[in-house]
Sec-independent protein translocase protein TatB (Hydrogenophaga intermedia), 167 residues
Amino acid sequence: MIDLGISKLALIGAVALVVIGPEKLPRVARTVGALLGKAQRYVADVKAEVNRSMELEELKKMKDSVETAARDVQSSVQDTTNEFEKSWSDATAGLEGDTLREPTEADVMRSIGQPVYPVYTRPKKNFRLKQKAVPQWFKARTGVRTRTQSGAARVARFRPRPSNPSR
């Protein structure tokens, strides 16, 4: 990299002052500063893009390795399942007709040829659903409380007033 010390910068400034002149020097310095800023931002953007592309490649490699591991696990589970099903079918091959149990009423009805209907059960009431709404005028007429009060507030509200104000 270029080694610029204070003495070299002073020399460059003196030459620029003589060559460019004192009137145009501030404008030239601003332009040079803006160009250097743009160059630095461009270099930073290029670095960031390179880093992003490298991370993307790493993520793609990681994705491929995870997918191959998942395929391996899936194939091993499938093989194990197939082996288990085969051994289960071999073990239960002679047991299918040998099960003894009492015939139920539904089995008897099916053997006669009559249809079997399921037993009716009354649906349970869902208390979360609002069934009806009571109007406010009816609540006010019948004395149903619509506002919640604490016990202390209710006692204070209905406490008898002293009849003698001299107390």
